[in-house]
Amino acid sequence: MKVSSIVFAQFSDSHLFGDKSSSHFGQNVYQNLLEVLVHIRDEQNIQFAIFTGDLTQDHSDQSYRNFVEAMTESGIQVPIYWLAGNHDSLEKMNTLLDHPLIHHDKTVNVDDLQLLLLNSKSDSPAGLVKPEELQKLANVSTPTLIFMHHHPLPVNYFIDRHGLENRQEFWQIVNQQENVIGVACGHIHRGLTIAASGENKAPLYGCPATSIQFDPAYDGVRPLPQGPGYRQFCYRNNTLTTQIISLAYDGVRVS
User: Fold this and answer.
1) Separation between Cα atoms, residue 207 and residue 149, nearest integer Å
2) Is residue 83 one of the residues assigned to a domain?
3) Count of the separate structural domains present in the chain
4) Most buried one in 2, 46, 104, 161, CB count within 10 A?
């Protein structure tokens, strides 16, 4: 059955601790994640959500369980798909993300739209899309939005030191696929959009973090005085639109 529009959310970079009361640069990241999940829950047109990595900050098993507990506590009712970030353990995510609404599929098809979740985790903080993942991009035959953790274009602040190592190879393949309508990433802790250009024939959509937003003027991690956020997408009549949802520290939308 064809739906009139496809509405979904992307959230990212929760950086959870095993202790739910722990703070990351002054932010209670568990409560921030919870507020984002509640907001997604209350947006009744959202059909599913995609988490694009860096779930954990302290690498503890309990931090992964806390992600699941936040889903239960929030009362969210839509399916959640996920990718690993550079902080994460794929093994732990596969075993500890145990919840009826958490799906481990890396391809999501809704009507004629395909969402392709690519693993960019490497042995370093930087990203690498391996050949078997790049192969998934070949001969894309339906409108496709790619999700990944690492950013495949420079954003001109410190996080570029940990960007996608094989970015040229990635774009060489993507640019040959007429059906790729965009690339969405986490990792950069900012909700920015980079339009299609000579290097990238598809736009890049960065996602704000549920934890902290990076200050691009500082050469290192320094948070901006902003609350958590996420990104919404809507695909309707072969057109993709998107908006950033920012929350104040008390969970109230501010933009």
Assistant:
1) 10
2) yes
3) 1
4) 46
Domain-embedded: residue 251: no
Q: Is there a domain that residue 1 lies in? A: no
- The predicted-structure confidence for 153-208, as pLDDT tens digits, reads as follows 999 999 999 999 999 999 999 999 999 999 999 999 999 999 999 999 999 999 99
Is residue 255 situated within a structural domain?
Answer: no
Contacts of 42 (CB under 8 A, 6+ apart): none
The CATH number of residue 121's host domain is 3.60.21.10
What's the angle, vertex CA 122, arms to CA 87 and CA 62, rounded to 5? Answer: 25
Enclosing domain of residue 23: 7-246
What is the pTM for the complete model shown? 0.95
